[in-house]
Design brief:
By secondary structure, this protein is of the alpha/beta class. It contains ten helices and seven strands. InterPro entries: 11-beta-HSD, NAD(P)-bd_dom_sf, SDR_fam.
């Protein structure tokens, strides 16, 4: 048995042990919980809203498209949400992210979960020097997150609440064709990783959960990578459920699907192997 195989087996054993000893998820803990979900008109955010609805939560959802949000909110009510409200917002604005939190605080009377999931559109291609787009994307994918978190923290402190940050494997390890997007996710990991330590050191009531996701079968993602990336895509509804569980059990990190953790661990041990695998996971002809 080779060294690499032994390391992979050891990692798998650790993953099983962590999963076995993780706090148990209590669905009833979410009944009546006051939740904000961003990026909720489609993809993972939409599935997050539906799962919270099935658990009987009170939900405020947001995205840019008001008509689609209305449809999602109506379905949430049919699935069992105690409340399902929506507010259209553009996260590239410097003021609208905070307005979403203020709306939720007013309508729900406080917050138990702030689930930050939204992203701005970004091309899946070799970077061509578009600095302005990268600045814009940083506002949407990063600065709006920290704006909303700061606005929500006092209420989350009162409720023993949770910040749930949906990030990406691309924020943990480098990959081609996603330089602007990857930079925003790296920023999220750095900021909220630091915030976790600060909150813990001052014995705050607020938990932070960082969710590292691999390729998920959302329509937006699949439209970009179909025929280009040689990796399996995992279901958005399953990713959403895992995100909810990690937040409800107040754990720091989620790696979904399973291979994301192995990539993150092994990239520092075997960088040349990891880089080879990454580069050969794409159908690319210069």
């Amino acid at each position: 048995m080779g060294v690499f195989t032994k390391i992979i087996m050891a990692i798998c054993v650790v993953l099983i042990a962590v999963k076995w000893t993780a706090p148990r998820f209590d669905e009833e803990s979410l009944r009546g919980a006051r939740v904000v979900v961003t990026g909720a008109s489609t993809g993972i955010g939409e599935q997050l809203a539906y799962h919270y609805a099935r658990f009987g939560a009170q939900i405020v959802i947001t995205a840019r498209r008001e008509k689609v949000l209305q449809q999602v909110a109506e379905k949430c009510l049919s699935l069992g949400a105690q409340k399902a409200l929506y507010i259209a917002a553009d996260m590239s604005s410097e003021s609208e992210p905070e307005k979403v939190v203020d709306f939720a605080l007013e309508k729900l009377g406080g917050l138990d979960y702030l689930v930050l999931n939204h992203i701005g559109p970004s091309p899946f291609t070799v970077w061509q020097g578009d600095v302005e787009h990268t600045k814009w994307l940083m506002q949407v994918n990063f600065f709006s997150y920290i704006q909303m978190a700061w606005r929500a923290l006092p209420s989350l402190e009162q409720s023993n609440g949770s910040l749930v940050i949906v990030s990406s494997l691309l924020g943990k390890t480098t990959s081609p064709f996603v330089a602007p997007y990857s930079s925003t996710k790296s920023a999220l990991n750095g900021f909220f990783g630091s915030l976790y330590h600060e909150l813990a050191m001052k014995k705050s009531n607020v938990s932070v959960s960082l969710c590292t996701l691999g390729l998920i079968d959302t329509e937006a993602a699949m439209d970009k990578v179909r025929g280009v990336v040689n990796l399996p895509a995992y279901p958005a509804t399953d990713a959403a459920l895992n995100i909810i569980i990690i937040g409800a059990t107040r754990q720091l990190e989620l790696y979904y699907p399973w291979y994301t953790y192995i990539i993150v661990v092994t990239k520092d041990w075997f960088p040349s192997i990891t880089n080879y695998i990454v580069q050969n996971s794409y159908n690319y002809i210069p």
